[in-house]
């Protein structure tokens, strides 16, 4: 595993992944306050003040070097600003494993932006970071995220029944994963 400092934006065909700034608060609030978008997130819709605090946290996270280090760059579409974010955490240094997640404003879902941004993050994970495995942990009722995992070449590895208390009820958890050799072979 190689330490990584997220100091320069990552450009894809249509997107730029970059660290958040205070100016992104309204764009992030657009999805963090939307009950449909946060339906499968671990939090309820957030007010602007809480979102501003979360954006400040995201802006301050730029290094992936130690276990549990994380980054959550904003996903910017030219002319539209921040439309979502990609979460990435170093889950284990010994096992060279990372965790990936995503959230996008509803108006920009279903257009391939999440796949494009997640692919860029997986390129980082299996390239400069030198990881062996990346997984996504999600609510299996979230059909769009399940489909995205499969589109990325991730395999369904586990389904934990009533695995966690989620918004007042027991909920299942799905695990999807991909190895570096599988990512490179796709």
H/E element order: EEEHHEEEEEHEHEEH
Please name the CATH topology.
Aminopeptidase
Q: Indicate the proportion of strand residues.
A: 25-35%
> Into which percent range does the helicity of residues fall?
25-40%
Backbone CA Rg: 16 Å
The SS-based structural class is: alpha+beta
In the CATH hierarchy, what is the superfamily? Answer: Gcn5-related N-acetyltransferase (GNAT)
CATH architecture: 3-Layer(aba) Sandwich
Count of domains? 1
Instruction: Kindly report how far apart the N and C termini lie.
Output: 22 Å
Summarize the structure in words:
By secondary structure, the protein is α+β, with helices and mostly antiparallel strands. The protein has one domain (about 5-185): Aminopeptidase, CATH 3.40.630. Helix content is about 25%, strand content about 35%. The protein is built from 5 helices and 11 strands. The chain has helices at about 25-30, 50-60, 115-125, 145-150, 180-185; strands at about 5, 10, 15-20, 65, 70, 75, 80-90, 95-105, 135-140, 155-165, 170-180. Strands 2, 3, 5, 6, 7, 8, 9, 10 and 11 form a 9-stranded mixed beta sheet that branches. A two-stranded antiparallel ribbon has the order 1-4. Helix 1 (about 25-30) packs across helix 2. The radius of gyration is 16 Å and the shape is globular. The relative contact order is 0.15.
């Amino acid at each position: 595993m190689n330490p990584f400092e997220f100091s320069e934006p990552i450009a894809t065909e249509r997107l730029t992944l970059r660290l958040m700034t205070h100016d992104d608060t309204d764009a992030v609030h657009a999805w963090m306050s939307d009950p449909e978008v946060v339906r499968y997130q671990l939090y309820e819709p957030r007010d602007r003040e809480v979102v501003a605090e979360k954006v400040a946290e995201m802006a301050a996270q730029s290094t992936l070097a130690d276990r549990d280090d994380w980054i959550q760059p904003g996903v910017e579409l030219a002319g539209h600003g921040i439309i979502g974010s990609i979460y990435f955490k170093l889950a284990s240094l010994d096992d060279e494993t990372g965790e990936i997640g995503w959230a996008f404003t509803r108006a920009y879902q279903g257009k391939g932006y999440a796949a494009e941004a997640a692919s860029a993050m997986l390129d980082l994970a299996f390239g400069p970071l030198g990881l062996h495995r990346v997984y996504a942990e999600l609510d299996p009722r979230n059909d769009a995220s399940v489909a995205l995992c499969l589109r990325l070449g991730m395999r369904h590895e586990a389904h934990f029944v009533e695995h966690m208390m989620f918004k007042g009820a027991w909920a299942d958890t799905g695990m999807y994963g991909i190895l570096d050799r599988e990512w490179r072979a796709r």
